[in-house]
Structure formats: C-alpha cells, structure tokens
Amino acid sequence: MKRNERLSVALHVLLHMSERQDRPMTSEEMAACIGTNAVVIRRTFAGLREAGIVTSVKGHGGGWRLARPPAEVSLAEIQRALGERVVAVGSSDEPPPRCLLLQSVVRSLDDAVREAERVLERRLATLTLADLAADVGVHHGGQAPPGEIRT
User: Residue 30 in contact with residue 64, Cβ under 8 Å?
Assistant: First the structure.
C-alpha cells in the first residue's frame, strides 16, 4: 500500500496555512514549502476551494487562506474534497480473474479493504487540522516553533 501523495501535500500546506492565518499564502509560497511547482498547488487546492475548505483571491496581496478555523476542518472532509483515497490499494479496474479460487480471494480482499476504508473514514472524521498542528507541537518539545511549522 502506498500513501496518497496529494493528501500528504495538501495537509502539509494546510498546516503551514493554519500557522499563518494573518495573511494569505501565494501558490508560490506554498509550493516552496513542499518543493513543488505552484501549478501543482493550484490544481490540488481547486477541489479544496470548491469544498469550502480554503478561499483564494487573485492579484496583488491575494493568495490562499483557510475558509474556517483549523479545528473545524476534518481530515475526512479534505480527503473527500481531493476525491482520492488516503491509501492506494491495487486497482479495481482489472478484469475479474478466470480462476474461481482467485475470484473468491479477490472478493474477500475487496471486502476487507472496503471495511478498512470505512474504519479509516470514521477515524479521519474525528481528526482536524488543529489536531495535526497540536501533534507537531507535542513532537517539538511541547509546542511548535512560534508562527512556524518546520518541514
């Protein structure tokens, strides 16, 4: 299984935004936080804007901001806005196997993955951006560096 990179990127940048709520962050600033191109940020954050998680303003002094306080944004909501799973598990686009035994194995594994996704979704619904920011503080001697989450 592989972690979803878009979700990791979005969460990383959203945490930076939560620490800098006094002003918007440009796509270029956000891209610099994670070592990518600003286009990647704009594409990733378009779904977050549509879901009401972030807002954006064009032009001088513009940029991206959280639309709500970090304590009101759940990880499940972010995952849904990105339209992707947290963990990539195989491809369901493959044609069904011909072997009856393998068909049974695939059905059983697919059922287990669906159940795991339901459990994960419930857990993510209880976690917020504020929870992640607090976790950063716990792992940096009790508090995060003032005004900054280090990458």
Answer: yes
Identity of the residue numbered 51: A
**The pLDDT of residue 89:** 61
Q: By the 8 A CB rule, do 27 and 57 touch? A: no
- What pLDDT was estimated at residue 141? 53
Q: Where are the beta strands (DSSP E) in the chain?
A: 2-3, 54-57, 63-66, 87-88
What DSSP string runs through 38-72? HHHHHHHHHHHHHTTSEEEE-STT-EEEESS-GGG
**Token representation of residue 151:** 């990458």
In this structure, how many other beta carbons lie within 10 angstroms of the beta carbon of residue 149? 19
Measuring CA to CA, which residue among 129, 133, 24 is closest to residue 81? 129
Write out pLDDT tens, residues 9-68: 899 999 989 887 788 999 999 999 888 899 989 998 999 999 999 999 888 878 999 999
Closest CA to 134 of 23, 52, 15: 15
Domains of the chain (ranges; CATH) run 2-138 (1.10.10.10)
Q: C-alpha angle 53/143/130, rounded to 5°? A: 20
Q: What is the pTM of this model?
A: 0.75
